[in-house]
Amino acid sequence: MTPLIRKLLGMNWLIVGLSIGLCILGVAAVYSASAFREDTYWHKQAIWVGVGVVIFMVASLIDYRWVKWAALPMYLASIVLVILTYIKGEEHGGAKCWLRLPGIGTFQPSQLAVIAGILTVALFLSQFRKMHPFVKLFITGCIVGGPMLLILKQPDVGMTLVWVPVIMSMLLLSGIPKRYLIALILIAASAIPWVVNLALKSYQRARITAFIDHEIDPTGAAWAINQSLIAIGSGGLSGKGFMATGTQVEQGFIPGTTVHTDYIFTAIAEQGGFIAGVVLIGLFAVLIVACLMTAHQAADEMGLLITVGFAAQIFFHVYQNIGMTISLMPITGLPLPLISYGGTFLVMVMFGLGLVNSVWVHRKVLPG
User: Fold this and answer.
1) pLDDT (mean) for 22-46
2) Which of 278, 302, 279, 316 is nearest to 358 (CA)?
3) Where would I find the H helices in 297-342?
4) Nearest to 249 by CA among 238, 220, 261
5) What's the predicted TM-score (pTM) here?
6) What's the angle, vertex CA 71, arms to CA 24 and CA 359, rounded to 5?
7) Which of 46, 116, 189, 356 can pair with 78 through a Cys bridge, CB separation 3.0 to 4.6 Å?
8) Any idea where the domains of the chain sit in the sequence?
């Protein structure tokens, strides 16, 4: 039996099945949410799913340890691309954070920056395990601080916030004493009022205000969240049915520009009800647990940190995206992994899950 066959047979098929299965559910969800107005979205999403599956399989078969040679170039390239958004970027939703690639479409460099940041921080923390914790914290802060400030300046608060749970989880498992992390959390918490008042634009502050009180601006900043709550609540236990007419989604109360991206869970919950929402959340929960089990079996610290970093990224995206549709979190515009429409983000998530699968495949030395 060749090493390639051994790797194929030795994959974590739970991660494989959940990753591909969620992608397929995403295509169906995009179709059900957008076919009333624009029926080409699901075609494009299906093509990107095919590309993502190929990248997932390739990343699964390549030893993740080789990624350390690509971590720093990816990190530097992502910073350059983020800076380019200030010059040639396109504005969507009030944030100038997109670049247009000929023949491909729009691309959000901040998403690549998070992936590259996870790999770079994992490489650094695993290579300098005996370094003093304060020095490790300082250098890690320098690695992530630049991209975070550049992304916040776009301004894209959602992608800025993604860094927080990702890096904190990696620092915790790298052996940083908890007192350092608690101090870091307290410092960050004290900076929130300054960020809200000085770094955010007026429409972003309005979103926070609408999150606190939905009645302040019901036809403006609070419109989307109010309509989302009505749609999800009207779905009841079993929903109104796939592609049902007369719904909030079909009648356009949920903006057509975001219903297949930011508010995809709203469409799923309205058409599939509480049952569909719980099933979807349960699938993500199993996927995250499978990633954490992989981290537990990792052969080295780099594999552990990579896996935990990607698991934290998926968790926060799911929590923030679903949370904002049910008024647990302010509106930020983060997509739902593997479900929301968006090719580049889907491919990057599949690449990350492929690396997690690679950590499982290479958790022990293969014969030959």
Assistant:
1) 88
2) 302
3) 301-325
4) 261
5) 0.93
6) 55
7) 116
8) 3-361
